Amino acid sequence: MNLRDGPSADPSVGAAQPSPSRPADRLTDPGRADTGGSAHGGEVAPGGTDDGSGPALPSDHTQAILETTKEVGAVLKASGRPFALVGSVAAYAHGIPVRLQHDTDFAVRQEDADVVTGALRERGIRIMDPPEDWLVKAHAGGEQIDLIFSLAGRPVTSELLDRAQTLPVDSVHMPVLAPSDLMTARLLALSEHHCDFGTLLPMARGLRERVDWSRVRDETGGAPMAMAFLYLLELLDVLPHGDAPHA
Questions:
Q1: What is the mean pLDDT of residues 42-64?
Q2: Basic and acidic residues bias located where (predicted)?
Q3: Which of 42, 108, 186, 206 could bond to 58 as cystine, CB 3.0-4.6 Å?
Q4: Domain boundaries along the sequence of the chain
Q5: CATH architecture, domain 62-177
């Protein structure tokens, strides 16, 4: 996700249902290998292929990603360091119907990275050091985990994590990024190379009464993709006309 959450983009909308062909694996399982699936570890879409010669989409990993999220969340809570669930799984926790297909993302402070990764290693989770300096990647149960230190170029701070809301994630309670912060991060992650309004519209509609849109406008001011999206929300009557500034 680039919040990469985007962002780790999910081509979502529709009710989140576990894939019958993809049972949830426990986090402590050694890796999981799929047979006959796509490079993303999922099923090949009708008309698609697994060799790169045609379009292929990953299957819905919702339940598998939720299982991974719950167990990673439990490890992070036990570490005693602040964190918050972000990205598409955070939207899911806030009640937005999304299909989870890519990874699960957690915001942590840079200064807590060693403690957090150490706690995950003790649970047998494989930690990877990507070339980017704003996150750490991990793998468990066949799913990818991103530990993010910077959301859309802004460092994860104690203040940001203090605003997180404790919500149940498939029965396990954990801190989840607050709606206004979640929307701000997703909007700031938009660019000329990644500008999928389709995945943001269900989130904006579902969270609109819980978002401080004035703060979102202030924090995304000057970002052209964010301004365009806020204007689109006006045209769709998600926001009152004139509530979002535009040129």
A1: 53
A2: 23-32
A3: 42
A4: 62-177
A5: 2-Layer Sandwich (3.30)
